[in-house]
Design brief:
It is built from seven helices and seven strands, in the order E-H-H-E-E-E-E-H-E-E-H-H-H-H. By secondary structure, it is an alpha+beta fold. The chain has a seven-stranded antiparallel β-sheet with strand order 2-3-4-5-1-6-7, sandwiched between helices. It is globular and about 65 Å long.
Length: 242
């Protein structure tokens, strides 16, 4: 479990459900191009630079290098597990539950992370635990759902929804397929020449795994895009008359 904050654009007076839905919407017409990628990565680098002055311990980062994806960068503070992600239309800050030597300091770092991301992006922050604006408090309990809600599906964070939407799965699937083809085309001549060294075998394994992963992601994206079948009525399930 983790404490999750989502940041996204929100018009004055706009309901949070609508703002989050817009941030999660699958809009292929606005798919990131080279300029959008460059701008997004530059924004992430500014966030990273400021966070390095705030967070304790080692920091691991990743930035996008190819267009077509919806994630510009990820940052993780290994000591606390605090993670910051920047997407094309939203961002997230999450802090895993667990024991911390100095909880107040960790919460202070999480608050500063939210402030820095909001400052660099212009986004507003939403607290999934209170289902309202993030007020800077991370210690309050998670709101219990009403009994009617308990039987329904669990709401996922904006970051998780972005990763699971069909367009994102499809883009990542094609990326892995393209990468697999490049690796296998590079490896095939080495194998045909009788080269069975460690490097060749490693490249072959990586290429095959990328190929399988890409095919799996494309298959999952197709299933995710299919509409759920309507519940069939049983015999005699038609409308009754008094």
């Amino acid at each position: 479990m983790s404490y999750d904050i989502t940041l996204c654009r929100r018009s004055p007076g706009q309901d949070w459900d609508d703002a989050l839905a817009e941030a999660d919407a699958d809009d292929t017409a606005t798919e990131a191009d080279a300029q959008a990628l460059t701008t997004g990565v530059e924004t992430f680098r500014r966030i990273e630079l400021r966070l390095r002055e705030v967070l304790d311990g080692e920091i691991e980062t990743w930035v996008a290098e190819e267009t077509g994806g919806d994630v510009y960068g990820e940052l993780t503070a290994t000591q606390t597990g605090l993670q910051v992600e920047l997407f094309d239309r939203s961002a997230s800050v999450s802090l895993p539950d667990g024991e911390h030597d100095d909880l107040d300091r960790v919460h202070s770092q999480a608050r500063r992370a939210v402030e820095i991301v909001a400052d660099e992006t212009g986004y507003e922050a939403y607290d999934h635990q209170t289902r309202s604006d993030f007020d800077g408090t991370l210690a309050h309990p998670v709101a219990e759902p009403e009994p009617a809600e308990q039987a329904g599906p669990t709401r996922l964070s904006a970051a998780e929804l972005a990763r699971r939407n069909p367009a994102s799965l499809r883009r990542r699937g094609w990326f892995y397929l393209a990468l697999a083809i490049v690796i296998l085309l590079f490896t095939a001549p080495r194998l045909m020449a009788g080269d069975t060294g460690v490097l060749t075998i490693m490249l072959l394994v990586i290429g095959v795994l990328d190929l399988l992963g890409g095919l799996m992601l494309l298959s999952v994206s197709r299933r995710a895009a299919e509409p759920e079948p309507a519940a069939e009525s049983g015999p005699g399930a038609g409308p009754t008359t008094p």
